[in-house]
Specification:
Elements lengths: L2 E2 L5 E2 L19 E3 L9 E6 L9 H15 L8 E4 L3 H13 L3 E6 L4 H9 L3 E5 L4 H16 L2 E2 L6 H18 L7 E4 L5 H13 L4 E7 L41 H8 L5 E5 L1 H15 L5 H16 L5 E6 L21 H8 L10
Parallel strand pairs: 4-12, 5-6, 5-8, 6-7, 9-10, 9-12, 10-11
Antiparallel strand pairs: 1-2, 3-4
Helix pairs in contact: 1-2, 1-5, 5-6, 6-7, 8-9
The structure holds 4'-deoxy-4'-aminopyridoxal-5'-phosphate (PMP).
Length: about 375
């Protein structure tokens, strides 16, 4: 914890403990005040999940899936784990499997960024690519096919009980503890699997009934907003692609179906309001959080923050809000988030360079 010495200089004192495993550093992410962007009449906080060891909220899910399966006996020592995932779940699972010594295979459509594949391979996973034309369904079917052929353990992030459970036991408990004795008027989150909102919802509904839970989804893929129910197989997996789905730029959010894990939050009325957000707004707010607050988050974090700002503008004076920031912006270097960021010097930077005599770059 940073604090200040008598002379005003900053100091830290260590965590007061040694860690037995990287897995013990998952969770307990900080809720950080937004000082410059938030309207003056409210207190707006963000929960920065980038502080997790593999950089996202999905580290929680990954450790939960593996440890619940170890406990139930569904996962045997040394057995290979497999999952269809394009992003943070694969990176989280790769970290957990590396720490515990399980081989991991990830199936992924070849349309996802090269850096995602390389990150997972760097963490020791095998990445099996599937044709982009077959979309999420192709990734999913390939994982099932490989698991069946080889006797592997499928993580099933969209259906497993281990998902919401870890958010109930960790994310929600952290929120309760950090806001203990103070107001918390709004909790704002998007959904991918729905684990965050279902798990946190379970707890806030009981322990902080005055907190309004605001859920958000992409403006061009309003699966919940459409009111159209998801058709499912007997195990709760999607039977068809949801008719309201369209490709959107908020990676990690809103797959082309309503996940079973999210269905709990719908059926249980866990959220009080559903506010859609256009992807470009999320990108703009992610950049503003980075440049005006020094808070580095991805497109889903920017999108959640965009909605939190809308809620904040209209909130009663003195209101306290918390927005989830699921990961770090560094994961999006080759994505539209960084499209407007130049690799070469801008006009302004060239002018700065030329304003003093030495060390000019050669003219192109
Ligand atoms: N943002 C990002 C970047 C994610 O990877 C995820 C998880 N897929 C989410 C948001 C949503 O979290 P959850 O799955 O708990 O709904």
């Amino acid at each position: 914890m940073a604090s200040t010495n008598g002379d005003g200089s900053r100091t830290t004192g260590g965590r007061g403990k040694l860690y037995d495993s990287i897995l013990d550093t998952i969770g307990d992410t900080p809720c950080v005040r937004v000082n410059r962007l938030a309207p003056d009449h409210v207190d707006l906080y963000v929960k920065a999940e980038a502080f997790n060891p593999a950089g996202s909220v999905k580290d929680r899910l990954a450790v939960s899936i593996i440890e619940e399966a170890e406990k139930s006996g569904a996962l045997k020592p040394g057995q290979t784990v497999i999952e269809a995932t394009s992003g943070n779940t694969g990176i989280g699972l790769a970290m957990v499997c590396a720490a515990k010594g399980y081989p991991l295979v990830v199936t992924m459509a070849d349309s996802f960024s090269i850096e995602r594949r390389r990150l997972m391979r760097f963490l020791g996973a095998k990445v099996v690519l599937t044709p982009r034309a077959e979309k999420g369904f192709g990734m999913y079917q390939k994982a099932e096919e490989l698991a069946k052929a080889n006797g592997w353990f499928v993580a099933h992030q969209f259906e497993t009980d281990a998902n919401a459970k870890i958010h109930e036991n960790t994310t929600a408990r952290e929120v309760l503890a950090d806001f203990d004795g103070g107001r918390l008027d709004y909790f704002v989150s998007g959904y991918g699997t729905g684990g965050t909102v279902s798990g946190v919802g379970r707890v806030l509904m009981k322990e902080r009934p005055e907190t309004r839970i605001i859920l958000t989804e992409p403006a061009n893929a309003q699966l919940l907003g459409s009111g159209i129910e998801q058709e499912r197989t007997s195990v709760g997996a999607p039977a068809v692609s949801h008719p309201a789905f369209e490709p959107h730029p908020i990676q990690g959010w809103t797959p082309d179906f309503i996940p079973l894990v999210l269905q709990e939050a719908i059926d249980g009325d866990y959220y009080h309001d559903l506010i859609p957000v256009p992807g470009p707004e999320g990108i703009a707010w992610s950049m503003r959080l980075a440049q005006e607050e020094g808070i580095f988050t991805g497109v889903s974090g920017g999108s959640t923050f965009a909605v939190a700002m809308k809620v904040a503008e209209k909130a009663a004076p003195g209101s306290v809000l918390l927005a989830m920031l699921p990961d770090t912006g560094e994961r999006y270097l080759s994505s539209p988030l960084f499209e407007s960021i130049d690799e070469y010097m801008t006009e302004e930077e060239i002018a700065l360079s030329e304003s003093t005599p030495g060390f000019h770059m050669p003219k192109e």
